[in-house]
Hints:
Blueprint lengths: L5 H8 L3 E6 L4 H9 L4 E5 L7 H14 L2 E5 L5 H9 L4 E4 L5 H11 L22 H11 L1 E6 L2 H5 L1 H5 L6 E4 L1 H7 L9 H17 L3 E3 L6 H7 L4 E6 H21 L2
Amino acid sequence: MLTENRLKKSIRDGTLALGLTSVLPLPTLVELVGYAGYDFVILDQEHAPVGPELLENLIRAAECAGITPLVRVPSSAPEAISRALDAGALGVVVPRVRSREEAEAVVRASRFHPKGDRSLGDGRPTGFGRMALPEYATRANRQILVVVSIDDRAGVDALDSIVTVEGIDLVMEGAVALSQSYGVPGKLDHPDVQAAIRKVAQACRGNGVSYCATPRLPDEAERWQREGVAALLLGDDRSLTFRALQARLDNVRLELTTQ
């Protein structure tokens, strides 16, 4: 059943929130992320094989571990947004937002009347009818977090018109997608990609909109904190797991060769 969105409260209170993307569709791993102390998790439906039933179980795992579940939906289609929210997500991350019109459509698909036209029905968020629909609609409009991701050159060029749309709660960037859009696939340190990331952050700061940064270099987290970002996305579970497995193996091999 819909509860208080603690991530949204942290943003409102000015408390830095720390999160992780989950691309390994395993409920137990989502629980681990929560019990490790992260504030929020982004469940990836864009790049991971996550269907409706599995998504519900991933969200249940997040609820169990007390971590705020957001869903990165595969597109800005209203049906994709509605399904994620109906599954119990406390927010959506919408990729490839390129214009003010698209951002406005995302907000409408995420909110109920009078702020939008999201489809209304009973289900998990209402406790299967325990919460009356009028009450749920009012609460959901307060609690659901709407996040847009700037993933290509067109979105960067339209930044000021996108981030000023009423109802956008948080903005983030997709550096890998940006590198593709700028013609340097995978080169996240390329000057054009770094300049695009800075433009996203500056547009948010200049318009008083909350920004979620992704620190990728040493000392970047501290720098972003100084700049007053609302949240930090600290990578994804797949990369962290792979690096931890590699490090463990390398350490043991080193230990064995020095005997």
